[in-house]
Amino acid sequence: MSWQAYTDNLVATGKIDKAALYSRAGDSLWAQSSSFELQSSEITGIAQGFDDASNLQAHGLHVQGQKYFLLRADDRSIYGKFEAEGVVAVRTKQAILVAHYPAGVVAGEATTVVEKVADYLISVGY
């Protein structure tokens, strides 16, 4: 399966409207949907936030120029919210999944979808 299929499958769930897949270091875009490409500083901030969330806690999570309130940040998952929409980022062994969910989607449903794809990637060595 191509990397693009993972982002397409996330969007196909109806819980995610945009998704991207980056290398674990955040220095390479592997796949994206709907022109969902982050600025280099945004993906770098997310990649670094898995190991040290202090910058995200102090300045928020930025995705496509929008600042999201940081809800969670640990060595696996980063969640952010802006009004009724949100962002989920999950790090696997070799990749970072970043997904956006629109207003009207329950945050827990969106995070579950992204976390399950990450679990699968981890199970196959990625």
UniProtKB/TrEMBL annotation:
Membrane-spanning segments: none
Biological process according to GO: mitotic actomyosin contractile ring assembly; positive regulation of formin-nucleated actin cable assembly
SUPFAM superfamilies, sorted: Profilin (actin-binding protein) (SSF55770)
InterPro entries with a match to the protein in the record: PFN, PFN_euk, PFN_sf, Profilin_CS
UniProt-recorded Gene Ontology molecular function terms: actin monomer binding; phosphatidylinositol-4,5-bisphosphate binding; proline-rich region binding; protein sequestering activity
CDD domains reported in the protein's UniProt record: PROF
GO CC terms, sorted: cell cortex; cytoskeleton; cytosol
Keywords, sorted A to Z: Actin-binding, Cytoplasm, Cytoskeleton
Subcellular location: Cytoplasm, Cytoskeleton
Pfam families (alphabetical): Profilin
Keyword Glycoprotein among UniProt keywords: no
Function statement: Binds to actin and affects the structure of the cytoskeleton. At high concentrations, profilin prevents the polymerization of actin, whereas it enhances it at low concentrations.
Quaternary structure, from the entry: Occurs in many kinds of cells as a complex with monomeric actin in a 1:1 ratio.
Family the entry assigns: Belongs to the profilin family.
Protein name: Profilin
Species: Suhomyces tanzawaensis NRRL Y-17324
